[in-house]
Amino acid sequence: MSAQPWIAPAVARLRTANPYAVDCALAVLVLFAASLQWVFPDEGDDRLTWQGFLLGAATALPLVWRRRAPFLAACGVSVATPAMALYHAPPPDVMYAGLVVLYTMAAVGRPWQRRFMLVGWLVGVATTITHREDAEPFEYAFQLLSCVSAYGFGVLSRLQRAYTAALEDRARRLERERAADTARAVAQERAGIARDMHDVLAHAVSLMVVQAEAGPVVVRSDPERAEAVFDAVASAGRDAMTQLRRILGVLKDEPSQGGAGRLPQPGVAALAALVRRVGDSTGLHVELRSTGQPHPLHRDTEVAAYRVVQEALTNTVKHAYASRARVELDWTEDELTLTVTDDGRGSGAPGAGGGGHGLIGIRERAAACGGTARTGPARDGGFQVVVRLPVAAGRQAAPG
Q1: pTM of the predicted structure, to 2 decimals
Q2: Distance between CA 143 and CA 79 in Å, rounded?
Protein backbone atom coordinates (compact mmCIF):
# COMPACT_ATOMS: atom_id res chain seq x y z
CA MET A 1 0.00 0.00 0.00
CA SER A 2 2.86 2.41 0.74
CA ALA A 3 4.16 2.10 -2.83
CA GLN A 4 0.89 3.12 -4.45
CA PRO A 5 1.07 6.93 -4.01
CA TRP A 6 3.96 7.27 -6.46
CA ILE A 7 2.50 4.99 -9.14
CA ALA A 8 -0.09 7.41 -10.52
CA PRO A 9 2.33 10.38 -10.82
CA ALA A 10 4.89 8.11 -12.46
CA VAL A 11 2.38 6.88 -15.02
CA ALA A 12 1.24 10.46 -15.70
CA ARG A 13 4.84 11.60 -16.27
CA LEU A 14 5.45 8.61 -18.54
CA ARG A 15 2.41 9.49 -20.66
CA THR A 16 3.48 13.10 -21.05
CA ALA A 17 7.16 12.30 -21.74
CA ASN A 18 8.72 12.46 -25.22
CA PRO A 19 7.40 9.37 -27.09
CA TYR A 20 10.65 8.97 -29.03
CA ALA A 21 12.72 8.95 -25.81
CA VAL A 22 10.35 6.47 -24.14
CA ASP A 23 10.46 4.08 -27.12
CA CYS A 24 14.27 4.30 -27.31
CA ALA A 25 14.50 3.43 -23.62
CA LEU A 26 12.05 0.55 -24.17
CA ALA A 27 14.17 -0.81 -27.05
CA VAL A 28 17.33 -0.72 -24.89
CA LEU A 29 15.50 -2.46 -22.04
CA VAL A 30 14.21 -5.22 -24.38
CA LEU A 31 17.68 -5.77 -25.82
CA PHE A 32 19.17 -6.00 -22.34
CA ALA A 33 16.52 -8.47 -21.17
CA ALA A 34 16.88 -10.62 -24.30
CA SER A 35 20.68 -10.80 -23.87
CA LEU A 36 20.67 -11.86 -20.23
CA GLN A 37 20.13 -15.57 -20.86
CA TRP A 38 23.23 -15.71 -23.04
CA VAL A 39 25.36 -13.48 -20.82
CA PHE A 40 24.51 -15.81 -17.92
CA PRO A 41 23.68 -19.08 -19.69
CA ASP A 42 22.34 -22.20 -18.01
CA GLU A 43 24.24 -25.43 -18.32
CA GLY A 44 24.34 -26.48 -21.98
CA ASP A 45 23.33 -23.05 -23.37
CA ASP A 46 25.55 -21.18 -25.78
CA ARG A 47 27.13 -17.90 -24.71
CA LEU A 48 26.23 -14.70 -26.50
CA THR A 49 28.01 -14.16 -29.84
CA TRP A 50 28.21 -11.13 -32.08
CA GLN A 51 25.77 -12.72 -34.47
CA GLY A 52 23.35 -13.43 -31.62
CA PHE A 53 23.71 -9.87 -30.32
CA LEU A 54 22.97 -8.44 -33.77
CA LEU A 55 19.90 -10.61 -34.11
CA GLY A 56 18.78 -9.54 -30.63
CA ALA A 57 19.35 -5.91 -31.63
CA ALA A 58 17.29 -6.52 -34.77
CA THR A 59 14.36 -7.57 -32.60
CA ALA A 60 14.67 -4.52 -30.34
CA LEU A 61 15.55 -1.75 -32.82
CA PRO A 62 12.14 -1.60 -34.59
CA LEU A 63 10.53 -0.76 -31.25
CA VAL A 64 11.92 2.76 -31.61
CA TRP A 65 9.29 3.36 -34.35
CA ARG A 66 6.48 1.35 -32.74
CA ARG A 67 4.21 4.41 -32.36
CA ARG A 68 5.10 6.23 -35.54
CA ALA A 69 4.91 3.15 -37.80
CA PRO A 70 3.41 0.38 -35.65
CA PHE A 71 2.74 -2.16 -38.40
CA LEU A 72 6.19 -1.82 -40.01
CA ALA A 73 7.81 -2.10 -36.58
CA ALA A 74 5.74 -5.22 -35.86
CA CYS A 75 6.76 -6.75 -39.18
CA GLY A 76 10.44 -6.10 -38.43
CA VAL A 77 10.20 -7.75 -35.03
CA SER A 78 8.19 -10.63 -36.52
CA VAL A 79 11.03 -11.38 -38.97
CA ALA A 80 13.97 -10.91 -36.57
CA THR A 81 12.52 -12.93 -33.66
CA PRO A 82 12.24 -16.31 -35.52
CA ALA A 83 15.71 -15.75 -36.98
CA MET A 84 17.14 -15.27 -33.49
CA ALA A 85 15.22 -18.30 -32.23
CA LEU A 86 16.57 -20.50 -35.04
CA TYR A 87 20.13 -19.24 -34.65
CA HIS A 88 20.31 -20.10 -30.97
CA ALA A 89 19.72 -23.41 -29.32
CA PRO A 90 17.54 -23.19 -27.35
CA PRO A 91 15.50 -20.22 -28.57
CA PRO A 92 14.86 -17.22 -26.25
CA ASP A 93 12.94 -18.09 -23.09
CA VAL A 94 10.73 -14.98 -23.41
CA MET A 95 10.05 -13.09 -26.65
CA TYR A 96 10.17 -9.63 -25.11
CA ALA A 97 10.04 -7.67 -28.37
CA GLY A 98 7.22 -9.86 -29.65
CA LEU A 99 5.12 -9.18 -26.54
CA VAL A 100 5.68 -5.45 -26.97
CA VAL A 101 4.58 -5.38 -30.62
CA LEU A 102 1.55 -7.58 -29.89
CA TYR A 103 0.52 -5.10 -27.18
CA THR A 104 1.17 -2.17 -29.52
CA MET A 105 -0.78 -3.64 -32.44
CA ALA A 106 -3.74 -4.52 -30.20
CA ALA A 107 -3.73 -0.99 -28.81
CA VAL A 108 -3.26 1.13 -31.96
CA GLY A 109 -3.39 -1.17 -35.00
CA ARG A 110 -6.16 -1.45 -37.55
CA PRO A 111 -8.54 -4.42 -37.20
CA TRP A 112 -6.96 -6.49 -39.98
CA GLN A 113 -3.47 -5.70 -38.70
CA ARG A 114 -4.40 -6.81 -35.20
CA ARG A 115 -5.86 -10.11 -36.41
CA PHE A 116 -2.97 -10.76 -38.78
CA MET A 117 -0.34 -10.23 -36.08
CA LEU A 118 -2.13 -12.26 -33.41
CA VAL A 119 -2.69 -15.27 -35.67
CA GLY A 120 0.81 -14.99 -37.16
CA TRP A 121 2.53 -14.92 -33.79
CA LEU A 122 0.48 -17.78 -32.38
CA VAL A 123 1.28 -19.95 -35.40
CA GLY A 124 4.92 -18.87 -35.44
CA VAL A 125 5.45 -19.54 -31.73
CA ALA A 126 3.81 -22.97 -31.95
CA THR A 127 5.86 -23.88 -35.04
CA THR A 128 9.15 -22.75 -33.48
CA ILE A 129 8.56 -24.73 -30.30
CA THR A 130 7.57 -27.81 -32.33
CA HIS A 131 10.95 -27.81 -34.10
CA ARG A 132 12.75 -28.10 -30.78
CA GLU A 133 13.68 -31.61 -29.80
CA ASP A 134 13.55 -30.95 -26.06
CA ALA A 135 10.33 -28.91 -26.07
CA GLU A 136 8.00 -29.63 -23.18
CA PRO A 137 4.20 -29.19 -23.12
CA PHE A 138 4.27 -26.38 -20.55
CA GLU A 139 6.37 -24.28 -22.96
CA TYR A 140 3.50 -24.24 -25.44
CA ALA A 141 1.14 -23.01 -22.77
CA PHE A 142 3.61 -20.43 -21.43
CA GLN A 143 4.55 -18.91 -24.79
CA LEU A 144 1.05 -18.94 -26.25
CA LEU A 145 -0.48 -17.56 -23.06
CA SER A 146 2.16 -14.81 -23.01
CA CYS A 147 1.19 -13.76 -26.54
CA VAL A 148 -2.52 -13.78 -25.76
CA SER A 149 -1.98 -11.87 -22.50
CA ALA A 150 0.10 -9.16 -24.21
CA TYR A 151 -2.57 -8.82 -26.89
CA GLY A 152 -5.30 -8.69 -24.23
CA PHE A 153 -3.55 -5.88 -22.35
CA GLY A 154 -3.33 -3.97 -25.63
CA VAL A 155 -7.07 -4.41 -26.21
CA LEU A 156 -7.80 -3.14 -22.70
CA SER A 157 -5.59 -0.10 -23.32
CA ARG A 158 -7.41 0.65 -26.57
CA LEU A 159 -10.82 0.34 -24.94
CA GLN A 160 -9.72 2.52 -22.03
CA ARG A 161 -8.49 5.24 -24.40
CA ALA A 162 -11.72 5.08 -26.39
CA TYR A 163 -13.75 5.34 -23.18
CA THR A 164 -11.67 8.29 -21.97
CA ALA A 165 -12.03 10.01 -25.35
CA ALA A 166 -15.80 9.49 -25.24
CA LEU A 167 -15.98 10.97 -21.73
CA GLU A 168 -13.90 13.97 -22.78
CA ASP A 169 -16.06 14.50 -25.87
CA ARG A 170 -19.20 14.26 -23.73
CA ALA A 171 -17.72 16.75 -21.24
CA ARG A 172 -16.91 19.18 -24.06
CA ARG A 173 -20.38 18.75 -25.52
CA LEU A 174 -22.01 19.37 -22.14
CA GLU A 175 -19.82 22.44 -21.67
CA ARG A 176 -20.90 23.78 -25.05
CA GLU A 177 -24.54 23.07 -24.23
CA ARG A 178 -24.16 24.77 -20.85
CA ALA A 179 -22.60 27.81 -22.51
CA ALA A 180 -25.42 27.87 -25.08
CA ASP A 181 -28.05 27.62 -22.32
CA THR A 182 -26.36 30.46 -20.46
CA ALA A 183 -26.29 32.58 -23.61
CA ARG A 184 -29.98 31.86 -24.25
CA ALA A 185 -30.86 32.75 -20.66
CA VAL A 186 -28.92 36.01 -20.94
CA ALA A 187 -30.63 36.80 -24.26
CA GLN A 188 -34.06 36.08 -22.78
CA GLU A 189 -33.33 38.25 -19.75
CA ARG A 190 -32.15 41.09 -21.95
CA ALA A 191 -35.23 40.71 -24.16
CA GLY A 192 -37.43 40.84 -21.06
CA ILE A 193 -35.69 43.97 -19.80
CA ALA A 194 -36.02 45.54 -23.25
CA ARG A 195 -39.75 44.79 -23.32
CA ASP A 196 -40.22 46.27 -19.86
CA MET A 197 -38.31 49.41 -20.78
CA HIS A 198 -40.31 49.73 -24.00
CA ASP A 199 -43.59 49.40 -22.12
CA VAL A 200 -42.63 51.87 -19.40
CA LEU A 201 -41.23 54.49 -21.75
CA ALA A 202 -43.98 54.14 -24.35
CA HIS A 203 -46.69 54.44 -21.71
CA ALA A 204 -45.09 57.38 -19.91
CA VAL A 205 -44.17 59.28 -23.06
CA SER A 206 -47.66 58.75 -24.52
CA LEU A 207 -49.29 60.23 -21.41
CA MET A 208 -46.81 63.10 -21.32
CA VAL A 209 -47.36 63.89 -25.01
CA VAL A 210 -51.14 63.95 -24.58
CA GLN A 211 -50.87 66.26 -21.59
CA ALA A 212 -48.25 68.47 -23.22
CA GLU A 213 -50.45 68.93 -26.28
CA ALA A 214 -53.40 69.89 -24.06
CA GLY A 215 -51.37 72.28 -21.90
CA PRO A 216 -51.01 75.23 -24.30
CA VAL A 217 -54.73 75.07 -25.09
CA VAL A 218 -55.85 75.60 -21.50
CA VAL A 219 -52.92 77.62 -20.11
CA ARG A 220 -54.69 80.95 -20.80
CA SER A 221 -58.34 79.96 -20.66
CA ASP A 222 -58.17 77.77 -17.54
CA PRO A 223 -54.93 78.25 -15.55
CA GLU A 224 -56.00 75.86 -12.78
CA ARG A 225 -56.61 73.07 -15.26
CA ALA A 226 -53.32 73.88 -16.99
CA GLU A 227 -51.54 73.49 -13.68
CA ALA A 228 -53.16 70.06 -13.25
CA VAL A 229 -52.07 69.10 -16.76
CA PHE A 230 -48.43 69.94 -16.06
CA ASP A 231 -48.64 68.17 -12.70
CA ALA A 232 -49.84 65.09 -14.58
CA VAL A 233 -46.84 65.37 -16.95
CA ALA A 234 -44.46 65.53 -14.01
CA SER A 235 -46.25 62.64 -12.28
CA ALA A 236 -45.99 60.46 -15.40
CA GLY A 237 -42.27 61.25 -15.66
CA ARG A 238 -41.65 60.42 -12.00
CA ASP A 239 -43.57 57.15 -12.31
CA ALA A 240 -41.56 56.21 -15.40
CA MET A 241 -38.29 56.90 -13.58
CA THR A 242 -39.40 54.78 -10.62
CA GLN A 243 -40.28 51.83 -12.84
CA LEU A 244 -37.06 52.17 -14.83
CA ARG A 245 -35.08 52.00 -11.58
CA ARG A 246 -36.96 48.82 -10.72
CA ILE A 247 -36.10 47.26 -14.08
CA LEU A 248 -32.46 48.35 -14.12
CA GLY A 249 -32.03 47.22 -10.53
CA VAL A 250 -31.61 43.64 -11.74
CA LEU A 251 -28.52 44.68 -13.70
CA LYS A 252 -26.50 45.88 -10.72
CA ASP A 253 -26.09 45.20 -7.03
CA GLU A 254 -27.10 47.84 -4.52
CA PRO A 255 -25.55 46.62 -1.25
CA SER A 256 -25.48 50.10 0.23
CA GLN A 257 -29.28 50.23 0.10
CA GLY A 258 -29.71 46.70 1.41
CA GLY A 259 -32.00 45.89 -1.52
CA ALA A 260 -34.44 48.66 -0.57
CA GLY A 261 -33.93 50.42 -3.88
CA ARG A 262 -34.93 47.37 -5.85
CA LEU A 263 -38.72 47.55 -5.58
CA PRO A 264 -40.90 44.69 -6.80
CA GLN A 265 -42.28 44.85 -10.33
CA PRO A 266 -45.97 45.85 -10.57
CA GLY A 267 -48.57 43.10 -10.85
CA VAL A 268 -52.31 42.56 -11.09
CA ALA A 269 -52.89 44.46 -7.86
CA ALA A 270 -51.45 47.60 -9.46
CA LEU A 271 -53.87 47.58 -12.38
CA ALA A 272 -56.40 49.74 -10.51
CA ALA A 273 -53.80 52.46 -9.99
CA LEU A 274 -52.73 52.17 -13.63
CA VAL A 275 -56.29 52.55 -14.89
CA ARG A 276 -56.89 55.52 -12.59
CA ARG A 277 -53.66 57.21 -13.64
CA VAL A 278 -54.42 56.81 -17.36
CA GLY A 279 -57.91 58.21 -16.89
CA ASP A 280 -56.72 61.18 -14.85
CA SER A 281 -53.86 61.98 -17.21
CA THR A 282 -55.56 61.68 -20.59
CA GLY A 283 -59.27 62.20 -19.97
CA LEU A 284 -59.93 58.74 -21.36
CA HIS A 285 -62.78 57.07 -19.48
CA VAL A 286 -61.28 53.72 -18.39
CA GLU A 287 -63.32 51.11 -16.56
CA LEU A 288 -61.87 48.11 -14.66
CA ARG A 289 -63.95 44.98 -14.05
CA SER A 290 -63.02 41.70 -12.40
CA THR A 291 -65.06 38.48 -12.32
CA GLY A 292 -64.32 35.15 -10.68
CA GLN A 293 -62.11 34.28 -7.74
CA PRO A 294 -58.57 35.74 -8.05
CA HIS A 295 -55.69 33.29 -7.62
CA PRO A 296 -52.01 33.87 -6.85
CA LEU A 297 -49.91 34.10 -10.00
CA HIS A 298 -46.29 33.36 -10.70
CA ARG A 299 -44.14 36.50 -10.44
CA ASP A 300 -43.44 36.57 -14.20
CA THR A 301 -47.14 36.13 -14.97
CA GLU A 302 -48.01 38.99 -12.58
CA VAL A 303 -45.61 41.32 -14.39
CA ALA A 304 -46.81 40.10 -17.80
CA ALA A 305 -50.46 40.80 -16.89
CA TYR A 306 -49.63 44.36 -15.80
CA ARG A 307 -47.46 45.08 -18.85
CA VAL A 308 -50.07 43.69 -21.26
CA VAL A 309 -52.75 46.03 -19.90
CA GLN A 310 -50.29 48.91 -19.81
CA GLU A 311 -49.27 48.35 -23.44
CA ALA A 312 -52.89 47.95 -24.58
CA LEU A 313 -53.90 51.23 -22.91
CA THR A 314 -50.81 52.93 -24.36
CA ASN A 315 -51.84 51.86 -27.85
CA THR A 316 -55.36 53.13 -27.14
CA VAL A 317 -54.02 56.56 -26.12
CA LYS A 318 -51.52 56.80 -28.98
CA HIS A 319 -53.37 55.32 -31.93
CA ALA A 320 -57.06 54.63 -31.31
CA TYR A 321 -58.44 58.16 -30.73
CA ALA A 322 -60.87 56.53 -28.31
CA SER A 323 -63.05 58.12 -25.63
CA ARG A 324 -63.73 55.01 -23.58
CA ALA A 325 -61.82 51.84 -22.71
CA ARG A 326 -62.67 48.82 -20.61
CA VAL A 327 -60.27 46.44 -18.84
CA GLU A 328 -61.79 43.09 -17.83
CA LEU A 329 -60.21 40.36 -15.69
CA ASP A 330 -61.94 36.98 -15.89
CA TRP A 331 -60.59 34.47 -13.34
CA THR A 332 -61.13 30.72 -13.64
CA GLU A 333 -59.48 27.74 -11.98
CA ASP A 334 -56.91 27.36 -14.74
CA GLU A 335 -56.39 30.76 -16.35
CA LEU A 336 -56.75 34.50 -16.19
CA THR A 337 -58.29 36.18 -19.24
CA LEU A 338 -57.39 39.84 -19.74
CA THR A 339 -59.55 41.80 -22.17
CA VAL A 340 -58.87 45.44 -23.08
CA THR A 341 -61.49 47.01 -25.37
CA ASP A 342 -61.76 50.57 -26.65
CA ASP A 343 -64.21 52.43 -28.90
CA GLY A 344 -61.60 53.93 -31.18
CA ARG A 345 -60.34 53.04 -34.64
CA GLY A 346 -57.71 50.61 -33.37
CA SER A 347 -53.97 50.64 -33.95
CA GLY A 348 -54.40 48.60 -37.10
CA ALA A 349 -57.07 50.74 -38.68
CA PRO A 350 -56.29 52.92 -41.66
CA GLY A 351 -55.11 56.30 -40.59
CA ALA A 352 -54.67 55.27 -37.02
CA GLY A 353 -50.92 55.32 -37.20
CA GLY A 354 -48.45 52.52 -36.76
CA GLY A 355 -48.65 50.44 -33.68
CA GLY A 356 -44.90 49.87 -33.46
CA HIS A 357 -43.84 46.74 -31.60
CA GLY A 358 -46.52 46.99 -28.92
CA LEU A 359 -48.81 44.25 -30.19
CA ILE A 360 -45.82 42.01 -30.92
CA GLY A 361 -44.61 42.57 -27.37
CA ILE A 362 -48.04 41.59 -25.99
CA ARG A 363 -47.94 38.30 -27.89
CA GLU A 364 -44.37 37.60 -26.77
CA ARG A 365 -45.18 38.25 -23.12
CA ALA A 366 -48.18 35.95 -23.25
CA ALA A 367 -46.19 33.20 -24.98
CA ALA A 368 -43.33 33.52 -22.48
CA CYS A 369 -45.78 32.71 -19.66
CA GLY A 370 -47.39 29.82 -21.52
CA GLY A 371 -50.41 31.85 -22.58
CA THR A 372 -51.94 33.17 -25.79
CA ALA A 373 -52.85 36.59 -27.16
CA ARG A 374 -55.38 37.72 -29.76
CA THR A 375 -55.74 41.26 -31.10
CA GLY A 376 -58.14 42.74 -33.60
CA PRO A 377 -61.39 44.61 -34.11
CA ALA A 378 -64.00 44.21 -31.36
CA ARG A 379 -67.43 42.77 -32.13
CA ASP A 380 -69.22 46.06 -31.42
CA GLY A 381 -66.57 48.25 -33.00
CA GLY A 382 -63.31 49.57 -31.72
CA PHE A 383 -60.25 47.46 -30.97
CA GLN A 384 -59.77 44.57 -28.56
CA VAL A 385 -56.85 42.76 -26.97
CA VAL A 386 -57.54 39.35 -25.38
CA VAL A 387 -54.77 37.60 -23.46
CA ARG A 388 -55.09 34.25 -21.66
CA LEU A 389 -52.51 33.49 -18.95
CA PRO A 390 -52.26 30.21 -16.99
CA VAL A 391 -52.70 30.37 -13.21
CA ALA A 392 -52.18 26.69 -12.27
CA ALA A 393 -48.38 27.06 -12.04
CA GLY A 394 -48.80 30.26 -10.07
CA ARG A 395 -51.10 28.58 -7.53
CA GLN A 396 -48.64 25.72 -7.00
CA ALA A 397 -45.72 28.06 -6.66
CA ALA A 398 -47.45 30.41 -4.28
CA PRO A 399 -46.68 30.00 -0.60
CA GLY A 400 -49.27 28.02 1.26
Answers
A1: 0.48
A2: 17
